[in-house]
Amino acid sequence: MNLIENILEGLRAIQGNLLRTVLTGLIISFGIMSLVGILTAVDGIKHSLDQTFSALGANAFDIQRKGANNRGNQGGRAQKVYPVITYEQAQKYKDLMSDKAKVSLSAYVSGATVVKSQTDKTNPNINIVAGDENYLQAQNLNLADGRDFSNFEQENGVNVAIIGSEVKNNIFKNTNPIGQYVTFLGRRFKVIGMLEERGSSMGGNAGDRTIVIPLATGRQIPITGNGTLNYAIKTVIPKPDELNYVMGEATGVMRAVRQDNLGQEESFEIRRSDSLLQSLNEISGYLKVGGFVIGFITLLGASVGLMNIMLVSVNERTREIGVRKALGATSHQIRQQFLIESIVICLLGGLTGVFLGILMGNGISALIGDGGFIVPWVWVFVGLSICIIVGVISGSYPAYRASKLDPIEALRYE
387 near 306, Cβ under 8 Å? Predict the structure, then answer.
């Protein structure tokens, strides 16, 4: 019962000094507002940039045969040659992962290819790639003109092609290429689309020198060498923060598809496409640390101010403390009362600071991009916990001083 009485007495004391309580609470609220506001803004900006970077491949990973990019020997030893990823394996993986991600299959058909129109031809530097219905979207390739492959063209291997901008500039200088015909690899293809020019950034030159054909069409073209296409797989997931989880699941699925035995190393390799996202996470981590430091320094100043105000309160209420002790209040009860006052003031300021911080953080993130309204519950609980800690630390010494006052000397205090 003494605890409840002390809590009620502490609340009455706060109500009796309302202006001082409001001013003290504002000191705490500004500290919490800076802490929660900065961290909310960082989370909101990161969410907005996550959505932007998703279009740049930050939410995707590639699977290819291990050692596909190795050339020659390493350290005088011949590299182990792993079997290519066959169409059946790639298609099985696509079917198994279809409910978790969007999977694109493609195959590099030919490089250093000469492409001819009725009047002109290109240099022998054109890449021919066969892709499925998800290929353009997965590779972030946009059409400047024309259309994508239809389901009929994909399923039946029709001789249609989507050309890169450099191909168009070389053999269709003053002509709209849509509906025209080009010849390469001994076949005649109808041009149904043209890719946007990508330039020299982000590997754009190679994309501008590329012709995309339906995957079924690429499978019909005779391949020099061993006569087997090596398929590449690109997996795109809707949420970038689930990339590690889906990659782990994809590794297990692909091991089963490739029949890699237990304990044996993978015959394929997975490469993340989220270097931008990794950089973003690193930068946002630094921003969070900076925001926490700024908020901590502000709260440190607020705790010093609160302690000073509580000491002033002890001096102002010396006679009151003497009366309470004369009526039988123990030192423990006096100390408890002042601690409760300090904690309640901090919590009131903390709740106000959390509310203002959420509004401030979402306002800042809205200026950067549309990241939606975010309530960082973790930082809300952290902020309120810090308020309680600040209240205990700031109120402990004033409460101790109040509890040690001699009742006779306190009653004589003017």
Answer: no
Q: Is the pLDDT of residue 75 over 60?
A: no
Taking the complete model, does pTM exceed 0.85, yes or no?
A: no
Helix (H) or strand (E) holding 275: helix 275-316
210, β-bridge pairs: 127
Helix and strand element counts for the chain (H, E): 14, 10
DSSP 3-state assignment of 191? strand
Are the CB atoms for 388 and 347 separated by under 8 Å? Answer: yes
Q: Cβ(44)–Cβ(362) under 8 Å?
A: yes
**161-219 pLDDT tens trace:** 999 999 999 899 888 999 999 999 989 999 999 998 876 444 444 568 899 999 999 99
| Residues 192 and 134 sit within 8 Å (Cβ to Cβ) | no
Q: Which residues lie across from 161 on neighbouring strands?
A: 191
End-to-end CA, the chain: 32
What whole-number distance in Å separates Cα of residue 375 and Cα of residue 367? 17
Q: Rounded to an integer, what distance in angstroms lies between the CA atom of residue 143 and that of residue 169?
A: 15
SS3 category, 403 = helix
Contact (Cβ atoms closer than 8 angstroms) between residue 223 and residue 231:
no
The amino acid sitting at 24 is: T
Pairing of strands 187-195, 181-184: antiparallel
Average model confidence (pLDDT) across the chain: 80
Q: What's the CA gap between 92 and 250, in Å, rounded? A: 12
Compute the average pLDDT of residues 54-78: 64
